[in-house]
Design goal:
By secondary structure, the protein is an all-alpha fold. 58% of the residues lie in helices and 0% in strands. It contains 15 helices and no strands. Helix 3 runs antiparallel to helix 11, helix 4 runs antiparallel to helix 5 and helix 8 packs antiparallel against helix 15. The longest helix has 36 residues. The radius of gyration is 19 Å and the shape is globular. The N and C termini lie far apart (50 Å). The C terminus is likely disordered.
Length: 344
């Protein structure tokens, strides 16, 4: 029987208990899909499951702004990260919002006819590049926490998916067919169009902090803080020198994808953990069986691999968030001085 999972075998969702079962139940209700592999793959390291879901829920699903707009932002992120699984998923979810013509135009590789939609999609793409000009926002300022949270959520999810799942959203790549895309979108349309109550995922988290200033006063902030804490704890999988290497590599990163020949990456025989973490951050779709096999050994199980990938993925998220943090600070400063000139 085929499985969407690569390199790991997550525990069966049907056997889930406790917090994991609670998270999966909320996902089924608020996302409309039971046991999505996007989240099931994290259940090998269950401390990651709740905050990863919470950040997506509180930004994309329950955050301010239209679902269509946030799906477009998430699609832009997924295209920039070369994650076909997630890009196809967002196209299907655009069908669920009722924007069928837009969904099909994007599925064929086109760009939105609506200028605001096109700007949101482009903004999502540009968030991959640390230091990119993200102003003016293509959405109202009061919706910024939800849009930024959505983008950062999928910078994390894209990397986990690209590393640990196959590229096929549906068996046989059935999402290639228009009728299938529309049918799957229709199956979750009622859930997607329903108004979700903000904050419902926060009780699933363990005492998160308030989160970054750009998300102040929203449920996005604690969700981001919880995911940051859980993901960066995966750095315990590396020694101090390897953690330093990951940080320095991300600091020098310009958002580009690595060339075909991976020159300058840590050697899999000498530094297998560092190699996996750096690949998870910059090009998770380039992780191979050889990379994973070089890392495996006594005490290095599926949970450890998921934590290591999550650590690398969030190292990239943090690098990207730095740009967003600076942008938000500039907005606040301009507001305080009383002469904001940005177009929203």
């Amino acid at each position: 029987m085929s499985t969407p999972f690569r390199y790991t075998r997550p525990p069966s969702p049907r056997s889930a208990t406790g917090r994991t079962a609670e998270v999966l139940e909320q996902i089924a209700v608020d996302f409309g899909i039971e046991r999505p592999p996007t989240f099931v793959v994290l259940s090998s390291a269950p401390e990651l499951l709740a905050p990863a879901w919470a950040l997506m829920r509180e930004s994309l699903i329950a955050g301010d702004g239209s679902r269509t707009g946030k799906e477009l932002a998430a699609l832009g992120v997924s295209l920039a990260n070369k994650c076909p699984f997630c890009a196809d998923a967002h196209t299907v979810l655009l069908h669920a919002t009722g924007d069928h013509a837009l969904a099909e135009r994007l599925a064929r590789g086109g760009t939105p006819e609506n200028e605001v939609h096109a700007r949101v999609l482009d903004w999502g793409r540009r968030t991959r590049v640390p230091g990119a000009a993200l102003m003016p926002y293509p959405f109202p300022r009061e919706e910024a926490a939800a849009y930024l949270g959505t983008a950062l959520s999928f910078h994390f999810i894209n990397r986990v998916v690209s590393a640990l799942l196959t590229e096929q959203l549906l068996p046989g790549n059935a999402q290639r067919f228009r009728a299938v895309r529309r049918l799957v979108g229709r199956s979750v349309a009622r859930t997607v169009r329903r108004t979700a109550v903000p904050g419902a995922a926060l009780p699933l988290l363990d005492t998160p902090g308030p989160g970054p200033d750009w998300a102040a006063g929203t449920a996005v902030g604690p969700a981001y803080d919880a995911l940051r804490t859980a993901a960066l704890a995966g750095g315990e999988q590396l020694d101090a020198d390897d953690r330093t290497l990951v940080r320095e590599t991300l600091w020098a990163w310009d958002g580009s994808h690595p060339p075909v020949v991976l020159r300058g990456f840590p050697n899999r025989r000498e530094r297998p953990a560092a190699r996996l973490a750096v690949l998870a951050a910059l090009a998770p779709y380039r992780i191979t069986e050889d990379d994973v096999a070089a890392w495996r050994g006594p005490g290095r199980d599926d949970a450890g691999l998921v934590r290591l990938v999550a650590y690398g993925a969030f190292a990239a998220v943090e690098r990207i968030e730095t740009t967003m943090r600076v942008t938000a600070a500039r907005i606040r400063h301009a507001d305080i001085r009383g002469h904001t000139t940005h177009r929203w």
